[in-house]
Amino acid sequence: MIRRPPRSTQSRSSAASDVYKRQVDDFFDREKKRVILFICGEARCPGISERRQFPMQMAAKFKALVVVLEHRYYGDSQPFGTQNLTTERLRYLTIQNALEDLAYFIKFVNQELYKIGDDAKWITIGGSYPGALSAWFRYKYPHLIRGALASSAVVNAILDYDQYDFQIAKSLLKSGKWCLQNVQTLNAEIEKRLLNKEQGDKLKGLFNASHVSDDEFLAYIADTYAAYIQYGERESFCNKLQTNSLEERIDSLVQLASEGKTQLETYTYKYVANTTFDPERSDRQWLYQTCTQVGWFQTAYRDPKMATRSHRVDLTYYKGLCQAAFGANIWPDIENTNNQFGATLLRATNLIMTNGIEDPWQWASEKQSHGSMIAMVIRCEGCAHCIDIVNPKPDDSIRLVFARLRIVHNFMRWFK
After folding, report:
1. Running DSSP on this structure, what letter comes out for residue 110?
2. 16 has pLDDT over 70
3. What is the share, in percent, of the chain residues with pLDDT greater than 70?
4. Which residues does the annotation mark as catalytic?
5. 212 in Cβ contact with 268 (< 8 Å)
6. 345 C-beta neighbours (distance < 10 Å), count
7. Most buried pick, 17, 134, 347, 350, via CB within 10 A?
8. How many CB atoms neighbour CB 397 within 10 A?
9. Please, what's the b/e burial string for 270-291 (b: 16 or more CB within 10 A of its CB; e: otherwise)?
10. Closest by alpha carbon to 125, among 37, 29, 202, 59?
């Protein structure tokens, strides 16, 4: 495939990007030749979000240029322009190609965009799937960068990822047994009502979900819970479910769902099978990546005592989703992916991998240090997904503060 030069945020025209460009111009020191590459992932990427400004603070401290690369097939970075995203056209959406894009982009910045030379000192930063890309890039292209920060980096492809559900339950227990029990009794009641068509239709109507199947609805409900815990809002979530009656809990769940952390339409077979291109949509592309390379299908934990998801949303459900969207032969070869990228056996120098203690994705990451590959599990209240790269606050836990100081110290070494 012929690639056009990937875009950095320097070519974006949104208001957010205009602010971003001024920040870069304010503190970039050409003589030091320091560059931070912020890797974007499974969504449109106009720049570094307002919530995750820690990388920008690092850039200011080290007088570094910051560039951001949008992931192929997301947002405006489309190999086939605005044509439909058919299964055939998605064939170039792979981890391998995403890493090659990063390598190409670094050369493009060094030689053409900024003309700072191939001796420029690069550090990559990414969180979640982009965190994995940051780690994999350091592993595969160590000659192009000085080091990498991989926050909540899901480097281990897992087909049946029930550990996600285990961590949701484990985190809920931090608020008390009652919180997990309230979620589980609520789940049981929802499943019971769905067995009766009249009761099920009435229940789904409360969520404006009358048009979705029961299994799609159960997957949506599970992620409605999980979204709050994944992003460190476990305490407020549990408080909202601290009611005596099931009817009150259902009302609270309706309210939680209405806050929009999860989008109901994206859970339907019809939605992910829709090939129409829209730069704001990313669910079809991300499902393709999970169905072809990485899995991470979130199922109920094997021990019902530590499960928050319905057992109806199992691998058979996900296989049906993959086949409905992309065809009969689509299913990930997890062993091949992990053989290529190392999984938890990945070893690289000058690599920091961080995880929050309440993050359900930590079980797909590496949590043990090996030589100069540093792994940190940040053990603090509410510390969850990508916690180290979100905006620092005055009341941050001392353990989170220490983790960021350790990152700064290593950046200082790598940039020398």
Report:
1. I
2. no
3. 94
4. 128, 359, 385
5. yes
6. 12
7. 134
8. 16
9. ebbebeebeeebbbbbbbbbbb
10. 37
